[in-house]
Amino acid sequence: MCLSFFFRYPGFATDSTVALLVGLLFFLIPAKRLTKTTPAGETVAFDYSPLITWKEFQSFMPWDIAILVGGGFALADGCEESGLSKWMGNKLSPLGSLPVWLIILVSSLLVTSLTEVASNPATITLILPILSPLAEAIHVNPLYILLPSTLSTSFAFLLPVANPPNAIVFSYGHLKVIDMVKAGLGINIVGLAVVMLGMFTWIAPMFDLHTYPSWAPTISNETMP
């Protein structure tokens, strides 16, 4: 019956569904029997204790981290549903008149800034659909712009909300936000410099980025929206 329900409503069963079902089993599978002694001196089982109880789950679950990470995915969906991603695409369209190296630098800086307040998947979901049509419109290999932008999503070192490891470290209370900003700013700058150096040395010839690929659509000379 469960399978027929999922087949009837395609799209509702995702990887999250599998994870939730497995997690639910921990609350259902019995781990040990609970016993009690009757007035007659007999030991009888009256209930079962699951692998984990809701009280134990609440005491150990880092809700602050879950909300921070989940907020990043919610931000990406909200930007897409509200039309913010399309608006950003329209604002980025003048980049097509800039040199390619400057487009790569600006897009990498934009991604590095956005990934500080959103998760990596959320940043990718929001930015790459905007940059890909831009590369196709100026007849540049899309990977030339998408590769450095994708690598830049890993430069999330400034804020606690940037990624789960940052949130875990910040949750212990030994660091302030300004401490993380001071330590992460230099790493971000070095990371961007390494990406830019790699793009114009060994990455471009390795992936043949100077050639417009056959799998990319051919865009006619039209005014971008």
TrEMBL record:
One of its GO terms (molecular function) is sodium:sulfate symporter activity. It is a multi-pass membrane protein. InterPro entries: Na/sul_symport_CS (IPR031312), SLC13A/DASS (IPR001898). It holds the Pfam family Na_sulph_symp. The chain crosses the membrane at residues 12-29, 100-131, 183-204. The keyword Nucleotide-binding does not apply. It is found in: Membrane. GO terms for cellular component: plasma membrane. Keywords: Ion transport, Membrane, Sodium, Sodium transport, Transmembrane, Transmembrane helix, Transport. Belongs to the SLC13A/DASS transporter (TC 2.A.47) family. NADC subfamily. PANTHER family: SOLUTE CARRIER FAMILY 13 MEMBER, SOLUTE CARRIER FAMILY 13 MEMBER 1. This is Solute carrier family 13 member 1. It comes from Camelus dromedarius (Dromedary).
